[in-house]
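Supplementary Methods, section 5.1.

A reviewer requested that the exact input to the structure prediction be made available. We therefore reproduce it here, unchanged from the version used in the analyses.
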Amino acid sequence: MKKIVTDTSSSWLLISIAVAGLLSGCGPSEAKTEEKKTEKEAAPAAVEVIALEKGMLSTTYKTPGELIAFHQVDLYAKENSFVRKLYADVGSEVKAGQLLASLEAPELASRIAGAESRLKSQEAVYTASKANYDRLYETSKTPGTISPNDLDQAKARMNADLAQLEAAKAGFKEVSIIQGYLEIRAPFDAVVTARNVSGGAYVGPSGKGSEFPLFTLQEQKHLRLVVAIPELYTSYLSNQNEVNFTVKALPNERFKGKIKRLSGALDTRLRTERIELDVENNNKKLLPGMIAEVTIPLPSRDSSFVVPKTAVVNSTERLFVVRLNGGKAERVTVQKGREADGKTEIYGALQTGNHLLKTGSEEVREGTEVKNVKVVE
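The structure derived from this sequence is encoded token-by-token as follows.
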């Protein structure tokens, strides 16, 4: 029987040599990888800058506005009188010249009769004085029959009577016009939105019940949309701009109007300009008094410097951007215009092609050297 003898010492030697070989093969590559990672981590991040360019920035301005009737009037009684009959009520659609109410003033009849009698009396006086003058004038054609003084006196009397006749005519016309005030008529096509009297009520400029109008009329098929625009946006407004708006009563519908009137002055309290838009309302969905949410387009009229909003730094001292000048940071004071889609207009001592930090910061001090610059759009 043979014995198998194993040399354990030689086996352990072979294993040790193999392990050492493996360790020597892996060590240098791993060390290089670690060095590369360290270099990447140590490299500073690139500073993004933008090249300054001019552009056109068109924005919109949203603000509330008020819908009012294109025409609105309160109708009062001019003379002390009583309401005889009403021909319209709240909600009635009336046409221009349509009779709304008739009034009666009993004492006015006597005033008309007196004015008429004075007119007829004066007509008779003038007729007599004119006939006398005509006879004297015809007679005076024969020399020596009528003295010039008598003829002049007759003519003066005739002219005085004519003046009195004209005054009587004016008095009678005045009373007749007053009688016309006893009929209350609509001045334009409108809707009656208020009625404050009933039949038999006493009305008049100084009578009981005159503190309220007889009727209030509004033209509702044609409305005005009144909007107050802040001073900052007034230069972008122009006539004929089409404006969209919505109302809370009809949230799913959008309405349109055109800018027709600009006040051309600022309100001294709010520093806003009043503008008015004409709105067609033939279906009468919109009502006077509604508050509208208005979107007004503000197209750019000229080009200006447009930069990302992040480039503008708003510090406690001033508003500025950071410009690169010879590789060093320079703070440039600017004024900000409109904003839209993450961009803003700026105005200041800048030129096309200047490089600005895309993301400005107060931490970047004046004269700081900026390295590793990367120009982005």
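Residues 1-28 have pLDDT under 50 and may be disordered. These observations are discussed further in the main text.
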